[in-house]
Structure formats: structure tokens, C-alpha cells
Amino acid sequence: MTATYTFDVFTSLDGNASYGPPGDWGGYWGKQGPEFLDHRRAAYDGEQRMVFGATTFGLFLQMLPAIGPEDRDAWMDRMINYPGTVVSSTLQGPVDWPDATVAKGDGVEIVRRMKAESDVPIRSHGSLSLNRALMAAGLVDRIQITVFPVVAAQTGDEPVFAGGGDFDLDLLESGTFDGRIQELVYRPTPPHLAFKLTERLGGWAAPGRAARRRRRSPG
Fold first, then answer.
1. Domain segments of the chain as ranges
2. pTM value surpassing 0.90
């Protein structure tokens, strides 16, 4: 049995993972609260392994030294201290991280091996390009997306799913924190696989040309 892989990402309502000038939203888009931070800490309970893309890991290396341990949120401390794998063809180890290894090569194959060999769940925070490739390869089991109540149409940056594929999403969990922050946990399935499964089960497929042809056929 392979390890479960979770793509954990923060976003504005309009799908941006970050923002640029002249935006001045602050961390968590300025919307964090005690319920949300308690929930984040719980999500990082238990044994897990982390996977980072090179860009996200580089941002953490720049950001975290500026935040003293007494000012860091508890989930960040737990994330830092989990065993981590950084997928990068350019980064040279060792790195200034408690337990991180740089893995060179194809990220899809690296994570495929990790899933086959790991006896604990695997989690990745951010790392958008890497996780879009892993979704396309069918290696992401859960998308844990936290939606902050802002629209960043002018200053938003890094659209979470830009350049990625199409996916059906099965909602596994949902929650609202501090009356404003939504977390949605989905299982992603490429639409052609979802259609095949629907056909196999004898049900109707999602709307589309194939589905319309079925509705017109005699029966």
C-alpha cells in the first residue's frame, strides 16, 4: 500500500497563492485567527514526511530566519522538523534545515518512489509547479486547499492551478474557521478516468460530447 500524498496550499478566493506589489496583505492574507491556527497545528500532528519544490523551499530558507522561534506558528515548527525532501536540479546540499535531503532528478519519479517506500503520510506545502506535475501523474491523493476571504484581482500572483490539467474533484472534508476561512479537502481525478469509472458503473457521465451522444442513443 502506497503512502497518501497531500498537496496543501493557501489561496485567495480568486485562486492566487501569493501577491505582489503594491499588495500588502501580510501572511495568511491578513485573515488568520485562533481556530485556523489550532486546526493547522492539528493537521501537522503525527509522523509525516515533507516534499518541497526548489522555489518554495528557497522562500522558506529566506523567510524563516527572520521569524524567531517564539513568533512562529506551531504548525511551521512541526513542518520544519519533519523529514523533508527537496526536489531540485540546481540546489546543492547540505541545506540549513533540520532534516532535509536534496533529491535531483525527475520529481514525478522521486515522489513515486517515496510513495511506494514511505510508511508515513507525505505532505507538500505550496510547491506549485511540482504539485501540478504530480497531479498530472496521478500521484496526489488529497488537495487540502485553504481559501482566504480576499479577491486579489490586481495584486494576486502565482495562480495555483495555472498551466495544470483538468480534474474532477470529490469533496472529502470541509470546514470553516474563525467565521471566514474555508478549508476544502478534495480527491482529484482526471476527467477521462472519472468518465470511464462512470461508464463501468453504468451511470451517466459528466456533461460533454460523449454524454450527449449517450442521451441521444436509443435504449
1. 5-216
2. no
In the 3-class helix/strand/coil scheme, how is the chain assigned residue by residue?
CCCCEEEEEEEECCCEEEECCCCCCCHHHHCCCHHHHHHHHHHCCCCCEEEEEHHHHHHHHHHHHHCCCCCCCHHHHHHHHCCEEEECCCCCCCCCCCCEEEECCCHHHHHHHHHHHCCCCEEEECCHHHHHHHHHCCCCCEEEEEEECCCCCCCEEEECCCCCCCCEEEEEEEEEECCCEEEEEEEEECHHHHHHHHHHCCCCCCCCHHHHHHHHCCC
Question: Domain 5-216 classified CATH 3.20.20.80?
Answer: no
C-alpha cell at 89: 536540479
Summary mean pLDDT of the chain: 89
For residue 196, name the pLDDT band (cuts at 50, 70, 90): low
